[in-house]
């Protein structure tokens, strides 16, 4: 797609608005796709944006069993985001899979714990300053509450 002119004038204003609208719609579609495919952290990373704490929960909440198993094999891959966050997510992927084996089907576990936690964390601005260890502690607590539940 051709970039818009620096300062649209007259008839160019309609073209500029249309271009901007299509670009934003395309980005929104890509964001939604990444969310549903459990790759939101990678989407932020791909766009060279910091990954919000809640977005690390996305893989745990929406990933398939294969996605969670594959997470272990990519833990050594260095992406733009902090390696500690990636390692924390890899650790929790293993924990979620182990709990699903012991207690309930993965989809049921995800619905009851990581999906709700993802929403909770997204609505709490104070978590933006959390470390990977704080996030792991909160996810583990939620998983343990589910087991006791």
Secondary structure category: mainly alpha
Strand residues, percent:
under 5%
Helix content: 55-70%
The Rg value, from CA coordinates, equals 19 Å
Write down the secondary-structure element order.
HHHHHHHH
Instruction: Please give the count of helices.
Output: 8
Quaternary structure of the protein: single chain
Output mean pLDDT.
Answer: 85
Question: What is the domain tally?
Answer: 1
Spans with pLDDT under 50 lasting ≥5 residues? none
Q: Tell me the overall shape.
A: elongated
Terminal CA distance: 52 Å
State the total count of DSSP E strands: 0
Instruction: Specify the biggest β-sheet.
Output: none
Characterize this entry briefly:
The chain has about 150 residues and is mainly α. Helices cover about 65% and strands about 0% of the residues. The longest helix has 25 residues.
């Amino acid at each position: 797609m051709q970039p818009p002119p620096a300062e649209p004038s007259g008839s160019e204003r309609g073209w500029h608005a249309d271009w901007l609208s299509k670009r934003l719609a395309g980005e929104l579609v890509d964001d939604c796709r990444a969310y549903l495919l459990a790759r939101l952290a990678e989407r932020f990373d791909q766009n060279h944006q910091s990954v919000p704490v809640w977005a690390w929960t996305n893989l745990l909440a929406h990933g398939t069993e294969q996605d969670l198993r594959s997470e272990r094999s990519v833990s050594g891959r260095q992406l733009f985001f902090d390696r500690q966050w990636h390692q924390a997510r890899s650790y929790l992927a293993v924990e979620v899979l182990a709990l699903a084996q012991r207690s309930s089907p993965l989809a049921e576990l995800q619905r009851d714990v990581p999906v709700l936690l993802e929403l909770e964390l997204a609505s709490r601005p104070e978590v933006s300053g959390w470390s990977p260890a704080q996030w792991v502690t909160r996810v583990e607590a939620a998983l343990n509450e589910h087991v006791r539940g």
